[in-house]
Specification:
CATH architecture of the largest domain: Orthogonal Bundle
Number of domains: 2
CATH superfamily of the largest domain: Tetracycline Repressor, domain 2
Number of strands: 0
Shape: elongated
Largest sheet: none
Distance between the termini: 59 Å
Radius of gyration: 22 Å
């Protein structure tokens, strides 16, 4: 006789575990608010503890250091990337529009939290792997971009003379270049460059027939 373990109820969270989790969440979100308001570099563990109404020792019971807490925030980057891919990149529409929607939402969120986003991405790159390895978020987006570019080739709004996987490498590379420049220089106009990259990418992926049909000084119409 086989046991059906798939229907076993999930373990009930005890009162002690729940209070511990809630306290940890409070410290985490308090730190995030302070990072957004004051910057990561100028925010101290003592300030986080005071704002969360806990002792500094309680902070260290839950997080080894401020850097460790920041490293945990990099997980939000992956979660948000997956959400953007599902809500923007995979929505139906012309390929150029789908890419533009994805980048527009990403830049809107970067504008809303530039300092924190910069520090979190920098930590993500710094702690994500060994020298020479891919930036951790790149594999997450390469597959979906390949997918929508291949769909665009079948639909006719993406050039078919180059492989979709290669085009995805070029598209993701163009967007990542702006992010890398921003990582190296916090004053780099990342939002402007990402939005400019959308136009550059759109021109690069369109079929030759679109270029031929475009009025002089105008853009080809995407059906």
């Amino acid at each position: 006789m086989e046991l059906d373990i798939t229907s076993a109820p999930a373990p009930v969270e005890g009162r002690r575990e729940r209070k511990k989790r809630e306290l940890r969440d409070r410290i985490y979100h308090t730190a995030r608010d302070l990072f957004l308001a004051n910057g990561v570099g100028t925010t101290t563990v003592e300030q986080i503890a005071a704002a969360a109404d806990v002792a500094p020792a309680t902070f260290f019971n839950h997080f080894q250091s401020k850097d460790r807490l920041l490293r945990e925030m990099t997980g939000e980057v992956f979660e948000r990337l997956e959400a953007l891919i599902d809500t923007q990149l995979r929505r139906p529409g012309p390929t150029r529009t789908r890419i533009a929607r994805f980048v527009d939402q990403a830049t809107t969120e970067i504008e809303a939290a530039q300092g924190l986003a910069h520090d979190v991405l920098l930590e993500l790159i710094r702690s994500g792997g060994s020298p020479g390895e891919l930036v951790p978020y790149l594999p997450r987006v390469h597959g979906p971009f390949t997918e929508i570019l291949r769909e665009g080739q079948a639909r006719g709004d993406v050039r078919a003379d180059l492989d979709a996987a290669f085009l995805a490498e070029m598209v993701v590379g163009a967007l990542n270049a702006a992010l890398v420049n921003w990582m190296n220089d916090a004053g780099y106009p990342v939002v402007q460059r990402l939005r400019q990259a959308v136009g550059f990418i759109g021109e690069a992926i369109e079929p030759p027939s679109f270029k031929a049909s475009r009025p002089k000084g105008g853009r080809a119409r995407i059906h």
